[in-house]
Specification:
Length: 219
Amino acid sequence: MSVEDEIKRFVSGKNFKIGDFNILFNDASFSFNMLYYLLNSVNCKLIYFKKTITPLKEIALLSLGSGSERIIVKITMENANKLNFEVYSDDLQLLDKFYNEKLEVIKLFSNKVKPESKLIINKYIDVLKLIDVALYNLLNKNIIREIYFNVANAREILYKIFEAEKFDPLLLSMASSLESLRKYSDEQILIGEDLKNYGLKFLQWKKEILEKIAELTGR
């Protein structure tokens, strides 16, 4: 399914606004990550994600709200020199309010990132994206193997970030979840209470990662 078709699953696609984002530190991938973070929240749900290396291109769709009050955010990075976001909603008032609020957030915080903090912020946002993808795979009832590797990769990045803090509660929680996921068949699909429990756990991780990035960016 194309990005446009995915958008139209949730909104008409007729009402939208476009914003540009400057490439920070001459690093398009980091800039995409920053925009992904600034437009994200605990209540946002990833509904589409695609990345290619040659040519360098990254696209993400985030969904917020439901029904007539749903907002869809599209973030696009192409060829390492163009980065923008689009906001869609069938409610024009809601569209204007969300777009203007996010525009202010982007202007305020994108220039506050210090060069010495860039690497660790980028790693945390990579973890955020992996948790979002794990949630996407969980909610779309994809097989255990896909969820497991998202969580395992996220934990590996965090393990390297924390270094001396190997007993951080977030790391321990991820390790516990990986252990419990191994009890299922690779091809199994989570349903019912299992799906709900893992979903709540992943959302808690997302909340904690967002808080860690906020501390580093002064948000």
